[in-house]
Amino acid sequence: MRRAFVHGLMATAMVFSAASAAFAAAPSTMPANKTAAQDDWWKHAVIYELYPRSFADSNNDGIGDLKGITNHLGYLADLGVDAIWMTPMFPSPQVDFGYDVADYDNVDPQFGTIADADALIAKGKGQNVKIILDFVINHSSDKHAWFQQSKSSKTNPYRDFYIWRDGKNGGPPNNWTSLFGGSAWEKDPTTGQYYYHFFYAQQPDLNWRNPALEKAMFDQAEWWLKRGVYGYRLDAVGTMFEREDLKDNPPAPGTDAFGLPEQNRINNTEQPEMHTELQKLRQNVIDKYPGRILIGETYVSTAPELTKFYGAKNDELQLPMYLSLIGLKPITAADLRPRIEAVESNPVGGWPCFALNNHDQRRSTSRYDLPAGTTGDDMARIMAAMILTLRGTPILYYGEELGMLNNDPKRVEDVQDIIGKKGWPKEKGRDGERTPMQWDASVNAGFNTGAKPWLPIGPDYQTRNVAAERADPNSVLNYYRTLIAERRTNPALAGDMTMVDRSNPNVLSYVRTGGGKKLLTVLNFGGTASDLTLAQLGGGKIGRVIVQNRTTVTANGLHLAPLGAIVAEIN
Ligand code: NOJ
Ligand code: CA
């Protein structure tokens, strides 16, 4: 999973620097998204992933909460966010910070109450910000009532809600290892059998081969849809099923961060049965409610593998996230182009969905080696220019719009994420990408005014924060706002996409066309400057420039310094 603009004529005379990054003025108020009420709203949306623990702490206990989110809906609307995907806020022992759910239809007291969730959904509706929840389908917490029943005896009616097997040769039933370290099997003393867990031992896998479990899970999903949520991001989809005969996994080269030999997880991930199950979830639950969607945490290596998640008849997930761009290191135009095109042209006509950041991955501003003379802000801008102009739905991660950096723990004693404690120093865990949202220059960056935040505030918060960046026309935040406003108003960004200058190994360029308009995006991921002619970029003349960074419009075309980016109309 882990580690795994100014008019062209005037512009010719200008020398651009990082300080003069944004060109079309950022909008003072975000234009409305005219498609918000359509059933296919999600095709025209900007979705924003938000980690409730880290977004805003309304009661000053150091942990973000639902009221904190509700208090900041105005900010999200002003940014042009159409929907938030909120990572789990259900009751949980928090071993995996909410991804160990103890009760699917409730709210953890540290995040608030059902009434707080209802208020968030209702106020979101008023501000045109839809709420999407995280549905952890692969496993529950070991403290879930189902598991407590299940482990109590071999004959308990909940026994088969989970995956129990006898050991073999004095050890676990097979060689499968947990992604989070050690064997994927835990022996339970009550019955002497082992239960299976792909993640932590406190996250026993649910048995989707059991119709009673399937019904119970579908009921949970419907419970929140009835309360007004717009759908789910499905956690760890590829781990939903495993081979029933428990065939051992073949070895793979190397050792994992926790000291065990790597293995190729062909027998406990990506099993074909999951597609039938996802179709059922879509038809029997989601499609009963208009405009509701399923997003997938679909880590796959190739576009054909991703296509499977749309379903053969485009009847599974509307938005399987394409996450493979995250893993490119270094990130090059030559690698990006075929990957994006393959997702774009999937044979079932599925709608593309891209994410460049999330709560499990180093932030893109800190992920790559930066070319000499560039900063994380330049990386933030080139990434924004890409994800907000590709054809498809972008999923942003809180703080991405500020250019927030990873704030990694320096000492193992400070680590909160258990995989970081277990895997230090090879695996430092995911704390660095989860530090509190930076709202203003006050103590604790406006996250709260009370107890020490659960993770340290980034050291740059006095200048990198919402208040400062909203007021600065050249900030990363206003770069995002300018591009999002363009998405909402320029039909080219709802239209077709064609790659141009296709053999260029360093510069990724494409043209969006729709409603009689043409928009050109040019992104220099190379380590050296590039000069490109307009003929090379598909012809025409540079018109209104939407955003531009480290780029000069020249007499014949464009000059892009490393990490240079431009989005401009073509006349
Ligand atoms: C994927 C989630 O994004 C991650 O944070 C979590 O640890 C695992 N699934 C297990 O639920
Ligand atoms: Ca709180």
Which tags fit this structure?
binds 1-deoxynojirimycin; globular; 571 residues; 15 helices; binds calcium ion; 19 strands; 8-stranded parallel beta sheet; single chain; alpha/beta
Query: Helicity level, as a percent range?
Result: 10-25%
Hetero groups bound? Answer: 1-deoxynojirimycin, calcium ion
Q: What multimeric state do the chains show?
A: single chain
Radius of gyration (Å):
24 Å
On the 0 to 100 scale, the average pLDDT is 95
Shape: globular
- Counting DSSP E segments of at least 2 residues, the number of strands comes to 19
Low-pLDDT stretches are: 1-22
The biggest beta sheet is recorded as: 8 strands, parallel
End-to-end span in angstroms? 43 Å
Structure annotation, total helices: 15
Topology:
Elements: H1 8-11, E1 47-50, H2 52-55, H3 66-71, H4 73-79, E2 83-86, H5 114-126, E3 130-135, H6 145-152, E4 164-165, E5 185-187, E6 194-196, H7 211-226, E7 231-234, E8 251-255, E9 261-263, H8 273-284, E10 293-296, H9 303-307, E11 319-320, H10 333-344, E12 353-355, H11 364-367, H12 376-387, E13 393-397, H13 418-423, H14 466-471, H15 476-489, E14 496-500, E15 507-514, E16 517-524, E17 530-533, E18 542-553, E19 557-570
Parallel strand pairs: 1-2, 1-13, 2-3, 3-7, 7-10, 10-11, 12-13
Antiparallel strand pairs: 4-6, 5-6, 8-9, 14-15, 15-16, 16-19, 17-19, 18-19
Helix pairs in contact: 12-15
Calcium ion binds next to loops.
